[in-house]
Amino acid sequence: MELKVYQNKNKVAEEFSKYLIEKSGTQKAFHIALSGGSTPKIVFDVLAEQFSKDINWNNIHLYWGDERCVEPTDAESNYKMTVEHLISKVDIPEGNIHRIKGEEDPKEEAKRYGALLEEELPKELGLPQFDLVILGMGDDGHTASIFPHEINLWVSPDNCEVATHPESGQRRVSLTGRIINNAKTVAFLVTGESKAEKVKVIVDREEGYLEYPASHVAPKTKDLVWFLDAAAAKLLTSYRS
Ligand code: 6PG
Fold first, then answer.
1. Rounded (10°) CA dihedral 125, 126, 129, 135
2. Does 109 contact ligand 1 (Cβ within 6 A)?
3. I need a surface site. Which of 7, 31, 62, 119 has the fewest CB within 10 A?
């Protein structure tokens, strides 16, 4: 596990953009699963506005690690957020965008998307393999849309599951651990003071850390990197700036 800690969110966004340029390189097809929520907004803005010319978007294929079960035009939609902050600003072919259809029946969509991953992604150890999975982490230690109260979904034998937000009851379609941990690389993008307590428990493997889905992110390749701002990293004992 590698920790990359930067002063503020903007610096995280800049450094992650450079990392992505280097990672995606000249690879013919680079398959990325995106995180949702609010953290990626500044990252996508910086990537699109400052670094887009350094990426060959014809080679980039976008997927989502999770999606809310809402219309793609809904303010809650991760796809809508990504269109606003990234896709609308870069020259990526439409055929390279593989959204989870939040408007469909959740169980049907989880099945469809799970099958799509089988078709679109190269296989490693018999499972679809992303080149890069980008993850966020909730204040409660959830990641993608695997929440602590449904942590059993992490070990589902399926590629995708239908999850339920613990407070709102909102349904989500989420990748499961079998796909996330089969990725070549997993990068957490976690910023803000509200995350510091869980970052400490999870990164420093404190007592009870395995209650949190983010603790179960462990790619077989061991290529796991945390992009953090100083606020999110401030309680870490395993890291001192
Ligand atoms: C989602 C995400 C989720 C998110 C965390 C952090 O659909 O909400 O994919 O896993 O990454 O909840 O969200 P923030 O970035 O808004 O704190």
1. -80
2. no
3. 119
Closest listed residue to residue 96, CA positions, set 59, 121, 122: 59
pLDDT at residue 57 tops 60: yes
Instruction: Write down the H helix ranges in 95-222.
Output: 106-120, 177-180, 196-203
Nearest atom, ligand 1, residue 136 CA:
11
* Residue of 9, 12, 43, 66 to mutate, ligand 1, most atoms within 8 A of C-beta: 66
- How many whole angstroms separate alpha carbon 171 and alpha carbon 165? 6
CA of 192, closest atom in ligand 1? 17
End-to-end distance of the chain based on CA atoms, in angstroms? 17
Residues 175, 78 contacting (CB under 8 angstroms): no
Helices (runs of H) and strands (runs of E) counted in the chain = 7, 11
Q: Does the beta carbon of 38 sit less than 6 angstroms from any atom of ligand 1?
A: yes
Angstrom distance (rounded) from CA 241 to CA 229: 11
The 10s digit of each residue's pLDDT in 175-203 is 999 999 999 999 999 999 999 999 999 99
